[in-house]
Design a protein that fits this description.
Helices cover 1% and strands 43% of the residues. The chain is mainly β and 384 residues long. The strands form seven sheets. Strands 3, 4, 6, 7, 9, 12 and 16 form a seven-stranded antiparallel sheet that branches. A seven-stranded antiparallel sheet has the order 5-8-15-10-11-13-14, with no helix packed on it. The longest helix is centred in the last third of the chain and has 4 residues. The chain starts with 8 loop residues before the first strand and ends in a 34-residue tail after the last strand.
C-alpha cells in the first residue's frame, strides 16, 4: 500500500448544522508527483499465439484488412500495430459506447473539471516508418470526431518505443474534422478540413489516426493514456440522516482519504471510492478530515516469475512444499512456477493486487500439466 500523498494546496471549509455537530472537510488539489489517470489502455495479450482483435479491449479500427492487430511483446504484455502496404488513412479508437461491456471503461471527461489534460501514447517506428505519420483523435459528446492538426514527431527511421504527448486544447486551430464509422466497420478514416469553432462539451472517445503514403509502413503503439495534473476539488453536498455527500471529478487512480487528527494522524484510503466520483460519509462529533489522493494503479507483479524470488511477490498455502520456481520449461523467459508432489496434495499460489480501479479485467496463465490432477483452477477475487 503506498504511503499517504500530501496535497499541494489545501483549502478548508467548515459547516455547521443545528442538529448535528461541526464537521470539517479538507478540499485539496493533488500533488504533482502522481498524475491523475483518466483513461489508459495497455493492450494486454491474452492468447497462446497469434494476433488478437482490438475489439477484445473495447477498441475498433477502420482499416482495409485484417482487424487482428494486438500482438505479444512478452508473456501477457501486448501492443498493437498499424500496418498498411499501400497509401491509406486508418483509425484505431475507443469510446464510451465501445467499452460498455469490454475493455477499460472510457469515462466521459469534462475538460473544465480538470487542469493540464494530456494525451500520450508509446509509438515505435518499425517498418519503413518514413511513410507513416500518426495523430491523436478524440470524440466529443458521443457525436463528432476530431483529429489533431499536426502529427506526432515520431522519427522517420526505425527505432525503439518512445512516449509522445500532447496537451489537450479546445482551440479550433488545433483540430481537423475526422470521419470514422464509430464501430470499426469502415475500411478507412477521412481527415477533413480544419474546424471553425472551439471544441466544447465532454470527451467521450479517443484514439489514433495513421496516414500511410507510398508503399506504406508500420508503427507499433501501446499505452494510450489520458491524464491530468489535477482532478479538481472535493465538494460538500447535501446532509441527510447524519450523513453528508461528498463529490469530486472522477479519475481511475484517485480515491477519498480520511483522518481524524491532522497533526499526527495517518491518512487512510477509503477503498470503495477508488475511481468513483462521490461518496456518502457519516458525520461524527469528533470531526473527520477528508481529501483526495492519487495512487499508482495496481497491477500483477512478477507474473512471468522472472524474479526467481517467489516469496517477494507471491504467497503459497496448502502443501507449500509442492510449490517452487524452476529454471526452464517456461512459456517465455527462463523461469516458471511448478506445483508438483509425489503424494496427493493441494496447493494455492496467489498475489494480492491493490488499487485496481473499477473495470473489466482478464486473468491469463499459460499452463502445462503432466496429468493425474483432480483439478486446476485459475481465479480472481473481486473483494478489496
Amino acid at each position: 500500500m503506498p504511503g499517504p500523498i500530501a496535497p499541494a494546496r489545501v483549502r478548508a471549509s467548515l459547516f455547521t448544522s443545528a442538529s448535528i455537530a461541526c464537521f470539517l472537510s479538507v478540499l485539496c488539489h493533488l500533488c504533482c508527483a502522481q498524475s491523475v489517470v483518466l483513461y489508459r489502455e495497455t493492450f494486454p495479450y491474452g492468447a497462446i499465439n497469434g494476433n488478437l482483435p482490438v475489439s477484445s479491449v473495447g477498441w475498433a479500427n477502420d482499416i482495409p484488412d485484417d482487424p487482428d492487430r494486438i500482438y505479444q511483446n512478452l508473456g501477457g504484455d501486448g501492443a498493437a500495430f498499424a500496418y498498411e502496404s499501400t497509401a491509406a488513412t486508418t483509425a484505431f479508437y475507443t469510446s464510451e459506447a465501445l467499452t460498455t461491456t469490454t475493455g477499460a471503461a472510457f469515462p466521459p471527461i469534462n475538460p473544465s473539471l480538470y487542469s493540464g489534460i494530456t494525451l500520450s501514447v508509446d509509438v515505435q517506428p518499425y517498418q519503413t516508418p518514413g511513410n507513416v505519420t500518426v495523430r491523436f483523435a478524440i470524440q466529443m459528446n458521443n457525436a463528432n470526431w476530431y483529429v489533431s492538426a499536426n502529427p506526432l514527431p515520431v522519427p522517420s527511421s526505425a527505432g525503439p518505443f518512445a512516449t509522445y504527448s500532447r496537451t489537450f486544447s479546445p482551440v479550433a486551430s488545433q483540430w481537423d474534422s475526422l470521419t470514422v464509422s464509430g464501430n470499426g466497420t469502415a475500411t478507412h478514416a477521412t481527415i477533413g478540413a480544419p474546424i471553425s469553432s472551439n471544441l466544447a462539451g465532454t470527451i467521450t472517445g479517443a484514439g489514433l489516426v495513421f496516414v500511410h503514403t507510398g508503399s506504406g509502413g508500420t508503427f507499433n503503439f501501446d499505452n494510450l493514456t489520458i491524464a491530468a495534473a489535477s482532478n479538481g476539488t472535493l465538494s460538500v453536498g447535501s446532509i441527510s440522516n447524519g450523513n453528508v455527500t461528498l463529490s469530486w471529478p472522477a479519475a481511475l487512480n484517485v480515491c477519498l482519504q480520511k483522518v481524524t487528527n491532522l497533526d499526527n494522524g495517518t491518512w487512510q484510503d477509503i477503498s470503495s471510492t477508488m475511481g468513483q466520483a462521490g461518496a456518502t460519509v457519516p458525520i461524527n462529533s469528533a470531526g473527520t478530515f477528508y481529501r483526495l489522493a492519487a495512487f499508482p494503479i495496481g497491477q500483477l507483479q512478477d507474473g512471468d516469475f522472472e524474479s526467481n524470488n517467489l516469496a517477494a511477490f507471491w504467497s503459497s498455502s496448502g502443501t507449500t512444499s509442492a510449490v517452487s520456481l524452476i529454471q526452464g520449461n517456461a512459456f517465455s523467459g527462463s523461469w516458471s512456477l511448478l506445483q508438483s508432489n509425489a503424494t496427493p496434495y493441494q496447493a494455492q499460489t496467489s498475489q494480492l493486487v491493490t488499487h485496481l480501479p473499477n473495470g473489466f479485467y482478464k486473468l491469463n496463465a499459460m499452463v502445462e500439466n503432466s496429468g493425474g490432477q483432480n483439478s486446476c483452477y485459475l481465479s480472481g477475487n473481486g473483494s478489496m
